[in-house]
From TrEMBL:
SMART domains given in the database record: SpoU_sub_bind
Protein's UniProt name: rRNA methyltransferase 3, mitochondrial
Entries under CDD domains matching the protein: SpoU-like_RNMTL1
PANTHER family given in the database record: RRNA METHYLTRANSFERASE 3, RRNA METHYLTRANSFERASE 3, MITOCHONDRIAL
Span list, region Disordered: 195-233
Record keywords, A-Z: Methyltransferase, rRNA processing, Transferase
Length: 327
């Protein structure tokens, strides 16, 4: 069937990149997309009832194709298909209208994703970023495509709640950050272990199972054999002050870099942090316990950043209200 072929092709990254389109599935995700201003091109539905729950003005712009629910079950990646799929123009965050509640609760807190290659992790991280009130998310090259169906599914609508800038070169990252930002990295690798491992800064975004001394700075990597001189480069790792995630670090504005599985944080991320006076944040865990999953670590660090920023905001408000008492 032609519809099945279209849906199958629409799931591919090549299709997304070459045609600037994305595939969305499920009532909630499609409704969130429409309300944010995403442009629908084709909607496949099994019953008219599905369409009645969508904003009428927006779906008038799309081609509406009624298909059998059995066909959607074949096309769908969901365990329990809802009978609704849509092909949309790839959203441009500059043209999106994000929910008022999201904008009201937005903080000068940004997230940078570095080498996050697992779709479920990236989707969950985006969901946490939306929940914490991040201003925006930067997804660098080397990460999984945020518009991949599994990422969308794990994101639970986060894609339409805050700006997500994807496929960024590290050279373009600073221009997408606010002036005066401090960039911190969430990391879990014992500096002494760097010379022993080729998979530097494993996915954790923050655990510290190997950190005997979390106060020790990141030291340059000792000279390694040529085959170990990967993206870190032979010049070594920039030196960063290191502290536990619950200690004071969230200044205004602040960005957090979360590294991914196997490849972990890139030297570009560490260079950026060092250039902004940023810190290396660790989440201590009980010795012998493996490092935390990147998505869990991201949630811990982002919500701690939110707590610190809100606390600082309250303190500043109090100083303005009672300058004599506090001065």
């Amino acid at each position: 069937m032609a519809g099945r072929k279209v849906v199958t092709i629409a799931k591919s990254k090549k299709f997304r990149d070459n045609h600037g389109k994305v595939l969305l599935e499920g009532l909630r995700l499609i409704k969130d997309a429409l309300e944010a201003g995403a442009v629908p091109q084709t909607l496949f539905f099994s019953t008219v009832g599905h369409l009645k729950e969508l904003p009428e003005a927006q779906i008038k712009r799309a081609s509406l194709v009624k298909v059998k629910f059995e066909d959607i079950k074949i096309w769908s990646d969901l365990v329990t298909p809802q009978g609704l799929l849509g092909i949309f123009a790839k959203p441009d965050c500059a043209k999106m209208t994000y929910p008022a509640a999201q904008l009201t609760n937005s903080l000068p807190l940004l997230l940078i994703c570095d080498n996050i290659r697992d779709p479920g992790n990236l989707g969950t991280i985006l969901r946490s970023a939306a929940g914490a009130g991040c201003e925006k998310v930067l997804v660098t090259k080397g990460c999984v495509d945020p518009w991949e169906p599994k990422v969308l599914r794990a994101g639970m609508g986060a894609h339409f709640r805050l700006p997500i800038l994807a496929n960024l070169d590290w050279e373009s990252v600073p221009s997408n950050l606010p002036a005066g930002v401090q960039v911190c990295v969430a990391d879990n690798k014992d500096p002494g272990a760097r010379a022993k491992s080729t998979s530097v800064l494993r996915e954790a975004g923050g655990a510290g199972s190997a950190l005997g001394n979390p106060k020790a700075p990141v030291k340059p990597r000792p000279n390694a054999a040529p085959e170990h001189e990967d993206e870190e480069g032979a010049a070594g790792i920039p030196e960063l002050a290191t502290q536990c995630y619950y200690e004071d670090w969230a200044q205004t504005p602040v960005a957090v870099v979360i590294g991914g599985e196997t490849h972990g944080l890139s030297v570009d991320a560490l260079d950026l942090a060092a250039s902004t006076g940023g810190k290396r944040l660790v989440i201590p865990v009980v010795p012998g316990v493996d490092s935390l999953n990147a998505a869990i670590a991201a949630a811990i660090v982002l919500f701690e950043g939110k707590r610190q920023l809100l606390q600082r905001h309250r303190q500043e408000d109090n100083r303005q209200k009672f300058p004599a008492e506090l001065g």
